[in-house]
Write a structure and sequence with these properties.
Elements (H helix, E strand, L loop, with lengths): L1 H15 L25 E11 L10 H12 L8 E10 L5 E13 L3 H17 L6 E9 L2
Length: 147
């Protein structure tokens, strides 16, 4: 019995020595683009834009200014609807000080096409110019949407 165990153990060690290790790791490009599949509903793009409400010269973007932006700039470009959420941004500045800013999150569900993307970038540019903002963060993701 001990002989069988020793022989099995020796064989396992010998086989382990036969493994080869790749000299480098390479990744090959996929041969085709994966096709997104929704169990129910349609494949759409969800874009969330994050707007800071503090003005660099002091003060904040008022609720009236914000609503005017949504009514006159956003809604005409996205007639099917949108959602707005109040948010609170926070980060650690390069000076090591904690910074906070009230913000708005604007969620859009739209077709994943160039026209929608261009409209979204136009909104970002309008807001940055109108309210002297450094940036408007954009987050995109494919989602399944059903009504």
């Amino acid at each position: 019995m001990a002989t069988k165990f020793i022989a099995s153990f020796a064989l396992a060690l010998l086989l382990a020595g036969c493994q080869t290790h790749p000299t480098s790791i390479t990744q090959s490009a996929p041969t085709s683009t994966p096709t997104p599949v929704c169990a129910g509903g349609d494949m759409m793009m969800q874009t969330t834009l994050w707007f800071g409400m503090s003005k660099p010269q002091g003060g904040t973007v008022s609720e009236q200014e914000w609503q005017h932006f949504v009514d006159s700039d956003v809604t005409p470009r996205f007639k099917d609807g949108l959602s707005v959420y109040d948010a609170k941004g926070q980060w650690l500045g390069e000076n090591g000080k904690l910074a906070r800013e009230n913000s708005k999150a604007l969620m859009l569900i739209h077709t994943p096409d160039r026209a929608s993307s261009d409209n979204i970038n136009a909104l970002r540019d309008i807001y940055k110019k109108r309210f002297s903002q450094e940036s408007v963060m954009r987050v995109d993701g494919l989602v399944c949407v059903g009504f």
